[in-house]
Amino acid sequence: MMDRENCTAISTATAVSLSDYLNTSYRPDCEYLNGELLERNVGDWDHSRLQMLLSQYLFAREKQWGIVVVPEQRVQVKARRFRVPDITVIAGDPPDGPMITKSPFLCVEILSPNDRLAEMQDRIDDYISFGVSSVWLINPRTRQTYSYTAAGIREVRDGVLTTESPDVRVALEELE
Fold it and tell me: How far apart (Å, rounded) are the C-alpha atoms in residues 80 and 34?
C-alpha cells in the first residue's frame, strides 16, 4: 500500500483512480468524489476535543444501545464517492470489509474553522441520500447543533441529541 504524507499535496482537481484512492493512505485521510480527492479540514482543539468526548460517550454505550462507533472511517456513499465523517455509528454488527459500504445509522460532523456551509451541505446530502438515518452537525465552539433526517432538518435547541431505533440520547452538557 502506498503512503502519502498529506492529501494537500494533491490538488482536488487532480484526477485519481478509484484503485489508487482505495490503496493509498492519506494523512489526514481525504474524501474521494468522482475521481477527485477532497481535502478534509483537520480540526482544531475544540473540534478534536469534542470528537473525542462524543466518541468516548457513544463507545461506552455500544452494548447498551446495540451500536458500533468509529472515528474518521471511510464510508462509500456511492460507487465513486467516499466520505469520511468525524464519527460514524453503525447499528448492529461492524462491516465485513475494510470500509463501510452499507448505510450507517448515524454520521456526526463537527465543524472546523475552515468548513464551508455549501461543502458541509453536500456531505450531509450524500449521507441522507445513502440512507443514513440521522446526521448531527455540531459547532464545537458554540455547541449550536442541527439534526438532519430524510424528513428534514431541525435545530437542537435544548442541547440533547437523539435518534430512534436504536434510541440514542446525548446531552451535550455531559461532554465536558
Answer: 5
> How many folded domains does the chain comprise?
2
Convert the pLDDT of each residue in 38-76 to its tens digit: 888 777 999 999 999 999 999 999 999 999 999 999 999
5 in the same domain as 80: no
How many CA atoms within 13 Å lie on the side-chain side of 157?
A: 1
Q: Which segments of 44-129 are extended strands (E)?
A: 67-71, 75-78, 81-83, 87-91, 106-110
Q: How far apart are CA 170 and CA 89, in angstroms?
A: 13
What is the mean pLDDT, run by run of 10 residues, along the chain of 176 residues?
Answer: 44 75 91 92 89 98 97 97 97 92 97 90 97 97 96 96 95 92
Both 22 and 68 in one domain: the answer is no
Sequence-separated (6 or more) residues with CB below 8 Å from residue 56? none
Domain hosting residue 25, numbered range: 1-40
pTM value?
Answer: 0.91
CATH number at residue 45: 3.90.1570.10
